[in-house]
Amino acid sequence: MPERQDQTDTERSFDSNALAEKARQAGEDVRRAGASTQALASAVRHSTEERVALRPYSTIAFAAAAGYVLGGGLSSRLTGTMLVLGGRIAVRRLLSEAIGGQRRPPGPIVEPSHH
Hints:
By secondary structure, this protein is an all-alpha fold. It has helices spanning 2-54, 56-70, 77-103.
């Protein structure tokens, strides 16, 4: 029976070593994930700051729309009305640009200079 006890102690030692190695690997994985998360957050912050500086009003509109959607506003009757009105405005704008683009006079004609 003592022989069985020795095997159990050896198995326990192996198990604790393997467990320690797994814990070390897990800790390293968590450290790498944390560093990646910090890098991603920094990139998002930089991109957001840049976008706000270049287009502050569209950024505010986007944030408001995202908040509305995340807040559960998509299923409301108001959303349907807003989508219909927004679609009509978009179609009108596209049509006016298309028609307006055809009526525009050609650009100035530049004649080559004679030296």
